[in-house]
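REQUEST FORM: STRUCTURE PREDICTION
Request ID: SP-0412
Submitted by: Lab K.M.
Chain count: 1
Length (residues): 240
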Amino acid sequence: MQPARNNEMNDFFFWAAMCIVIGSLLGGTCLFFSMKAVEFLQLTYLMVFGAALAIMDTPVLKSIKFVGMSKLYIGKHFSLITRVTGKGVVLIFMGSALFMTIWDTLESGFMRFLAALLCLFPVCIGFTAVVVGFFKSTRLDKARKQMQHIVDHEGLHQFARHEGGLSMEAFNDLCQTHSGIKFERLDLQLIFNALSSNPAWRAQVAASTQPRQGYGYAGEAPLLPKEDVVAWAKGGFVFL
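STATUS: Completed
RESULT:
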């Protein structure tokens, strides 16, 4: 059930990004023939960044090497869009920027209608992502506050069933034991992505040359290092 929910969320992000790409392409084409270079350049940037967002959540062509490598390097250099809240903020900004550019520079009623249609969806998805991300982050922080004076390296030994750190199940057991809060599988994926000081793109890049070195794994399941758990428990608010 959880993978289906995860895929559904990724599909919404993918189509929101594709709205940006399509809107930028259509608007940019009109601006190119109207000789409005500055606005054309702006929409070109929006189209490139929209394509980057789409690649991160694409439901197709996942087995192609280019798509996999693109995800790695986009996640490396633009870590903001690997989090639900950050992705929502980016979608709001890009949807608003696209709408304002087309509305202010193109007088065609059809293009303005198309701009409103294509920009409304990503902006709505962005606001939804920010709200959902904030509530999930607040719930995680609630667990952290109840654990910050309890969690230490020694206290994690009973939950860390692997030398490399805590699995998602172990982290869930830790939170449930000390705070009474239990997270769903999708939430745990977001939490591991946000808390790990050695995120997934580093693990996958390292695995291509030196498999399983520099990052904790239990079979194929990632492990959150105990140092990262302690740093989170004694740290501050973390956005998912």
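NOTES: Residues 203 and 215 are 6 Å apart (CA to CA).
Reviewed by: T.R.
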